[in-house]
Each structure stands twice: as structure tokens, then as C-alpha cells.
Amino acid sequence: MVLVFDLDDTLYEEITFVKSGFKAVANYLAPLLNCPAEELFIQLVNRLEAGGRGSIFNDVLQMHGKNSKQLVTKCLAIYRLHPPEISLYPDAIRCLERFRHYPLYLVTDGNKLVQQNKVTALHVPDKVKKVFITHRYGIKNAKPSVYCFELISKLEKTEPAHIVYVGDNPSKDFVGLKPHGFKTIRIMRGNYSHLQPGGAYEADRNIYTLDELTEDFLKNL
């Protein structure tokens, strides 16, 4: 059996990356806005909680009378390129250790540099055979595309029925895989834990912690 994991909200909590990025941006802006970094960080988090991620930097800069396209672009670059202060979920550490003798892979969508920085900070390459950041292969090969999973199938010389994907987002993680025979497991946490799409979009099984993922569980999948 081959185990493939998603990254965000599966192996670590994504909001910790967001807050790490806000901290880096706040430290940069503090002298420019003549405002303590701690206060700017709180403003960024409050704006996130109030209205999502769309225009957070614009809004906070506007509060300080410093909104400009150039400064927003700089904030975005700092956010995306900073070395994040993040760590694996405790159950992810236990799971990766428990299955260390299995072929383990990671498949994740998103900005190539951002995802690589996350992977590096979490020391994921030390724990899996290969990391697939889908955007390296073109956006068309991001989930729900099965492209990277078919690469894993070829690498392992095995059929999709012997490959299990663990992810959290039912809107894209499983719908492309199931028709090809891949096994799917949804972990019910993170930003998408409330979604109940049903049918083709749901995984074969749901779990609430990676501690539920055992050899016996896989045998009965």
C-alpha cells in the first residue's frame, strides 16, 4: 500500500502559516507605519477574521493612510516568501512515524515557492519519498487532476487500488481520484471540515485524527 498525504490542514494547521506570514509583514511595516509590530499583527488577524483574505494588506495600510500598490505588492512578497514558523500536527508526526516503512508521498496545490517553504519548514522531505507540488507541472495538473497521482503509480509500479490519498478538501481532493480507482480518506478538520458535498466529492472514509489511520484501517478500506 502507498500512502499519499495532502499538506494544508492535513499534516499541519494552515492558519499557523497565515499568522506566521502576518508576523513577517508586521515586522516589515512597523517602522514604515510608526506602529508596533504586535499591534499591526493584531490588526491583520482581525481583518482576516472579519472578511477573509481578499484585501487584508490594502485595508490595514488604508487604516494607516499608507495604501499603495507598491507597498501591497511588497507585503504580498514578504508573506509568500518568508520562512514560516510552522510545525506538524502531533498526530501527523505519529502517523508518519507509524508508516515510515511504507512508500509515503505528498501532493499539494498552491504557489510553488509558498508550498516549498512550508515543506522545508516542516522537514517533510525527510519523511516521505517525494514531494509533488502540483503547480510545478502546470496549473492544469493541480487537483482534481490525477496527473501527480499517476506519476506516483508509475514510480511505485502499482495500481491505483493500492494507493491511498488522505486530504481535507472534498471540493477537489477526491472527485478526480475515485473514478480511477484510487482509495481516498478525508480528515475532518481545517477550513473545509464543515462541507458536506456528498456523492462523487466525498471520500471513501472519513476520520477525525490521523491516529485513526492504522494498518488495520487500511486493510478494511
TrEMBL record:
Source organism of the structure: Adhaeribacter arboris
Assigned keywords, A-Z: Hydrolase, Magnesium, Metal-binding
GO terms assigned for molecular function: metal ion binding; phosphatase activity
Highest taxon of the lineage: Bacteria
InterPro entries referenced in this protein's UniProt entry, alphabetically: HAD-like_hydrolase, HAD-like_sf, HAD_sf
Name recorded for this polypeptide: HAD family hydrolase
Coiled coil among keywords: no
